Amino acid sequence: MKASSDTKGDLGEFIISELNRRGVPLSKTDDLPRLPATWRTVTVEISGTPKDVGAGAQGCSLGNVLAFCFSLLSRFRVQRPFSKDNDSNFSFSINGNRGNFTRTDTGLVISFITFGVSLTIGESDQELHIGFAEHPPHPGVPPDGE
Fold it and tell me: pTM higher than 0.70, yes or no?
């Protein structure tokens, strides 16, 4: 594991950057709010290749980060027949690649299913915990349109 020194900046830009590094093509738009914060990352290396990254952040509320993620992904929402999608749980598609946004009692889980990436956000001890994990893409879920 490698820990970084403290970084100050826009936590939203950090989240988008980490997702981009994992192949999820997102960009910050003018309507997304800035999320000023200070964070420290920890990178887990497996066989010398950085895979999973965790960050502890302060100076930004969980509610603001959840609202940012909702705004970032809600433009990609897709309606599924007979689904019970709502603002706390919905499916999305980015360039034909499926994902799921799920608010929980303690935070948020976003699965970029066909990209093989998950983002989790929670809070404890006055610090936000943000995790990025790579895993094999779900073999039973082809990109939309296939």
Answer: yes
